[in-house]
Amino acid sequence: MSGNDRPVGQPTQTPNAPADPAGDAVLDSAFLRACRREPVPHTPVWFMRQAGRSLPEYRKVREGVGMLDSCMRPDLVAEITLQPVRRHKVDAAIYFSDIVVPLKAIGVDVDIKPGVGPVVEKPVRSRADLERLRTLEPEDVAYVTEAIGILTRELGGTPLIGFAGAPFTLASYLVEGGPSKNHEHTKAMMYGEPELWADLVDRLADITAGFLKVQIEAGASAVQLFDSWVGALAPEDYRRRVLPGSAKVFEAVAPYGVPRIHFGVGTGELLSLMGEAGADVVGADWRVPVDEAARRVGPGKAIQGNLDPAVLFAPREAVEQQAGRILRAADGLEGHIFNLGHGVLPDTDPQALTDLVSYVHEHTS
Ligand code: 1CP
């Protein structure tokens, strides 16, 4: 916009940089400041899986709409993403989607079955199966670009976190054909056909990087790579067989300069390697205190976490006691983002989440 056609009352800061108050507020938000390990007005809070199952307003708008169908409807995605921001006053929104959306977008026969999770009709077990996984093009997920366009307008100064599943966790669903406790087929491929495994991880890294780039280019201010099930691995296997793929994803999005968060469950022994993969922020579950997590991750990275989501079923005083313990452990850390140690459980009382946000804000400002 040139100086002449600028609407009255919207002065620019400099002739070549039109004022973007919402964009400036996002950059200066407590969440992004904490990711950059800068001083914050209060500890920022958001919750993994904050959009969705625990909210009555979510269940209402999802009535009669399949999970993956809902992810492809920009109006619905925007509404569901905004719901927890309106209700809980969290410091960041997380884009409503699922880790299998990019797989669906490239033609994988995956569906999300209620009460089960992602189910893949024909699991990936051979090289021919791997060849079916093509590269993701931005046109494959045009609805993501459209939804993020709506969201960046509606969110004002609240940052939007984009996300994707990391290669190991995606591979687990693809190879097993659905949720798995022991990841036996996945590990059988990893140890029995190491070249096929390496190629699968590499292909998934490209798909994931492509999906994150679409979200960042559309306006996401940070990204989280969910490697939810990678805690099933020993450090040496993670280093050799998984880290290269996750590192490729982080490297691909590095030029955008947005904070990159890396999270997995049961990853106490992997925290330093997960940081090494290239994240700016490392998420920890509740099994390792945040100060110890920071020590394991090493300097130069912020820490996210880590209240056990089951604690939210205890009375308010007990929740505050446990949250207080985390805030004391985080006192003195260079960057701390308060979160749960894993996603919000479906039967969580939404009021417990709203109260927790106020507690963290009040006790850190
Ligand atoms: O705030 C939000 O809820 C954002 C949306 C979101 C996210 C971040 C959904 C919607 N899924 C995810 C990520 C996701 N999906 C992960 C990584 C995060 C984590 O570890 O929790 C994983 C592992 C999945 C896979 C998945 N999708 C599962 C887990 C199954 C298993 O292996 O045990 C399930 C149940 C789903 C379905 C799903 N995804 C999202 C929702 C709201 C649902 C429930 C289905 C529904 O409401 O119909």
Secondary-structure blueprint:
Blueprint: H1 21-27, H2 30-35, H3 56-62, H4 67-71, H5 74-88, E1 93-94, H6 101-105, E2 110-113, E3 117-120, H7 127-131, H8 142-155, E4 160-165, H9 167-176, H10 184-192, H11 194-218, E5 222-226, H12 235-241, H13 243-253, E6 260-263, H14 271-276, E7 281-283, H15 290-297, E8 302-304, H16 316-330, E9 336-337, H17 350-364
Parallel strand pairs: 1-4, 4-5, 5-6, 6-7, 7-8, 8-9
Antiparallel strand pairs: 2-3
Helix pairs in contact: 5-8, 8-11, 9-10, 9-11, 10-11, 11-13, 16-17
Bound molecules: coproporphyrinogen I (1CP).
Bound molecules: coproporphyrinogen I
Please trace the helix and strand order, writing H or E for each element. HHHHHEHEEHHEHHHEHHEHEHEHEH
Q: Average pLDDT, to the nearest integer?
A: 94
Rg of Cα set: 20 Å
Provide the CATH top-level class. Answer: Alpha Beta
Q: Main β-sheet, in a few words?
A: 7 strands, parallel
- What do we call the CATH topology? TIM Barrel
Percent of residues in β-strands: 5-15%
What count of structural domains?
1
Strand order of the largest sheet: 1-4-5-6-7-8-9
Question: How does this structure look, described?
Answer:
With 365 residues, this protein is an alpha/beta fold. It has a single domain (21-364), classed as TIM Barrel (Alpha-Beta Barrel). 47% of the residues lie in helices and 9% in strands. It is built from 17 helices and nine strands. The protein has helices at residues 21-27, 30-35, 56-62, 67-71, 74-88, 101-105, 127-131, 142-155, 167-176, 184-192, 194-218, 235-241, 243-253, 271-276, 290-297, 316-330, 350-364, and strands at 93-94, 110-113, 117-120, 160-165, 222-226, 260-263, 281-283, 302-304, 336-337. The strands form two sheets. It has a seven-stranded parallel beta sheet with strand order 1-4-5-6-7-8-9. It has a two-stranded antiparallel sheet with strand order 2-3. α15 links the parallel β7 (281-283) and β8 (302-304). α5 (74-88) packs parallel to α8 and α9 (167-176) packs across α11 (194-218). The protein binds coproporphyrinogen I. Residues 49-53, 67, 94, 96-99, 112, 114, 117-118, 163, 169, 179, 226, 228, 343 line the site of coproporphyrinogen I.
